[in-house]
Task: inverse folding
């Protein structure tokens, strides 16, 4: 039981990290698109 809760906690933190990385990735792409549009 204890091991299960620990595994769930690590999985949760990993999922949160993935979410943060995804948002940063989206922001970079968004800024790049705006920059390209400004160049044109």
Result:
């Amino acid at each position: 039981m204890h091991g299960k809760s620990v595994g769930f906690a690590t999985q949760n933190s990993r999922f949160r990290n993935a979410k943060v990385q995804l948002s940063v990735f989206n922001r970079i792409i968004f800024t790049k698109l705006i920059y390209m549009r400004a160049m044109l």
